[in-house]
Write a structure and sequence with these properties.
Strand content: 15-25%
Shape: globular
InterPro entries: AKR (IPR020471), Aldo/ket_reductase_CS (IPR018170), NAD(P)_OxRdtase_dom_sf (IPR036812), NADP_OxRdtase_dom (IPR023210)
Pfam family, one: Aldo_ket_red
Largest sheet: 8 strands, parallel
Number of helices: 10
CATH topology: TIM Barrel
Protein name: Aldo/keto reductase
Order of helices and strands: EEEHEHEHEHEHEHEHHEHH
Helix content: 25-40%
GO molecular function: oxidoreductase activity, acting on the CH-OH group of donors, NAD or NADP as acceptor
Keywords: NADP, Oxidoreductase
Number of strands: 10
Length: about 280
């Protein structure tokens, strides 16, 4: 991958992952997802994040095949859903995702939510897919520290990525520190708080100070914390501005001010509701 070093992160297994990607949650097949992926890739995005439960893998794959870009330049993530977990179920779910995407391999495959009863068998299947070369990297989504510890006590290959809800109202400092110690790359979903960052006065103030949009301030804040990020949008202007975050830097004092916005508030589900 021939990219600017500031735009990629190297996972502990030496796979290079773009630090900014397009999330396609709630982007429907038959228009929204195809348009968003096309705009994103043409605008410089190389990471597209989807999941079985989004029901748009087919649309993502079809659009990628229509674009003038080589497979090697792309980084495609998908996830195994809760009801598909377990060893054999995960292998079957992956094969369906791979066919829906029209790919020979997937760059990153994640466990979508921590289901304690099936986590170990699901991870064994992930390890098999990784060792066989069907996926370049494996990881988890929405895993808290205790979930990661439970998994790593029972695995051969530790997760390379933990994709979690991360934003100014949920800074996850302990989890972030733990993942850094374990060389697990944190990736932020819902980094823009489902649009609520536009209502935060400090973010508005910093946007004015740095001559950037509120979204660019928050996404740059992600990167300066060492967190990769996958903002979701289907609007051309928003998709473009969300990746235009490499030419400025937020001062440390302002980083600290954004950190202080933390309320331990989630806009998505609490992972522990699944960990039973």
């Amino acid at each position: 991958m021939n990219r600017d070093d500031s735009k990629i992160v190297t996972l502990y297994n030496q796979v290079k992952m773009p630090v900014v990607g397009l999330g396609v949650w709630k982007a429907d097949v038959g228009g929204d997802v195809e348009t968003a992926v096309k705009i994103a890739v043409n605008g410089g995005y190389r990471l597209i994040d989807t999941a079985t439960i989004y029901e748009n893998e087919i649309g993502v794959g079809q659009t990628l095949r229509e674009l003038d870009i080589s497979r090697e330049q792309l980084f495609i993530t998908t996830k195994v859903w809760n009801t598909d977990q377990g060893y054999e179920n995960t292998l079957q779910a992956f094969e369906l995702s791979r066919k829906n995407l029209g790919l020979e391999y997937v760059d990153l495959y994640l466990i979508h939510w921590p289901i304690k009863a099936t986590a170990i068998e699901t991870w064994r299947a992930m390890e098999h897919l990784y060792q066989q070369g069907y996926v370049k990297a494996i990881g988890v989504s929405n895993f808290e520290i205790e979930h990661l510890e439970f998994l790593m006590e029972n695995c051969q290959v530790k997760p390379m990525v933990n994709q979690v809800e991360f934003h100014p109202h949920l800074t996850q400092k302990k989890l972030l520190q733990y993942c850094k110690q374990q060389e697990i790359q944190v990736q932020a979903w819902s980094p823009l708080m489902r649009g609520n960052i536009f209502e935060v006065p400090l973010i508005q103030h910093l946007a004015h100070k740095y001559h950037k949009t509120p979204a660019q301030i928050v996404l740059r804040w992600d990167l300066q914390h060492g967190v990769a990020t996958i903002p979701k949008s289907i609007k051309s202007s928003r998709i473009q501005e969300n990746i235009d975050i490499f030419a400025f830097e937020i001062e440390q004092a302002d980083m600290d001010r954004v950190d202080a916005l933390n309320e331990d508030k989630r806009y998505g589900s609490n992972p522990n509701r699944y960990y039973e």
